[in-house]
Amino acid sequence: MPTRSVQHPNVAVYDHPLIQHKLTILREKSTRHEQFRTLLNQISGLMAYEVSRRLAVREKPVETPVAHTMGTELAEPTTIVPILRAGLAMMDGLLALFPEARVAHIGIYRDEKTAKPVTYYAKMPVDIARGPAIVVDPMLATGGSAIHAVELLREKGVRDIQLVCLVAAPEGIRAMHAAHPDVMIHVASIDERLNERFYIVPGLGDAGDRIFGTQ
Ligand code: PRP
Ligand code: URA
């Protein structure tokens, strides 16, 4: 079970030893992109089990080889929403647990000078509002990108939205809470702060570059 943050009640911190061990390797600047991708997907998969705890279920009749009984199934279609680029490297970990989930891609990058989000792509299931959405992005820095992604989902009528990140800055958590207080945030770590370039400290650098080897 993750721990609820005392300062940020809308945040679940995944302090599991295995997740923290893998996160430390991700933070190390000498870790190469192939290992970075593998570990990020593994952490996402480990988090997915608890993230899915809130999903609604309904009763379903089932014939076992022995008897008729009632079981349960997920009541609504779940949509995983990776924020491009870096969110892509968390998607397979989640899809391993939710093979039937749909995927909505949202492309957002931060303007290098202002750190404001710039949206360049959005492709979602037409009936995305039928079920919950799980937004995935390893970094929550100023919060601008994730808040904008949530706004795009709200415009489509999605009500139940969770955000899964690897590392979050307190500034980003506060901004998300102010904009969308009902969005539960799942993180492996709440780091210290943002620096003057709006990078998370200690963080792990530019997640997209480290995932895709574009540094
Ligand atoms: C990174 C990261 C988030 C965003 C977080 O993306 O993956 O989407 O920054 O910062 P914020 O909370 O201040 O908005 P980036 O802009 O580097 O785009 P990329 O993944 O395409 O490299
Ligand atoms: N985006 C990143 O990839 N890293 C940060 O530290 C902040 C924003």
Describe this structure in words.
The protein is an alpha/beta fold and 215 residues long. The chain has a single domain, classed as Rossmann fold. The protein contains 6 helices and 16 strands. The chain has helices at residues 17-27, 33-51, 88-97, 144-155, 170-179, 207-212, and strands at residues 3-4, 11-13, 57-63, 68-74, 79-84, 102-103, 105-110, 117-123, 133-136, 139-140, 161-164, 167-168, 184-187, 189-190, 193-194, 200-201. Strands 1, 2, 5, 6, 7, 8, 9, 11 and 13 form a 9-stranded mixed β-sheet that branches. It has a 3-stranded parallel β-sheet with strand order 10-12-14. The protein has a two-stranded antiparallel sheet with strand order 3-4. Strand 7 and strand 8 (117-123) form a beta hairpin. Helix 1 (17-27) runs antiparallel to helix 2 and helix 2 packs across helix 3 (88-97). The protein is globular. The N and C termini lie far apart (35 Å). Uracil binds next to helix 6.
Structural class: alpha/beta
- The rounded Rg comes to 18 Å
CATH class: Alpha Beta
pLDDT < 50 runs, ≥5 residues: none
- Given the C-alpha coordinates, what overall shape results? globular
For the biggest sheet, the summary is:
9 strands, mixed
Total domains, how many? 1
Which small-molecule ligands are present, each listed once? 1-O-pyrophosphono-5-O-phosphono-alpha-D-ribofuranose, uracil
Compute the number of helices: 6
What would the average pLDDT be, to the nearest integer? 96
Output the CATH topology. Answer: Rossmann fold
Oligomer classification: single chain
CATH architecture: 3-Layer(aba) Sandwich
Q: Which H/E pattern describes the elements? A: EEHHEEEHEEEEEHEEHEEEEH
Helix content: 25-40%
Report how far the terminal alpha carbons are from each other. Answer: 35 Å
Beta-sheet strand percentage?
25-35%
Number of DSSP strands?
A: 16
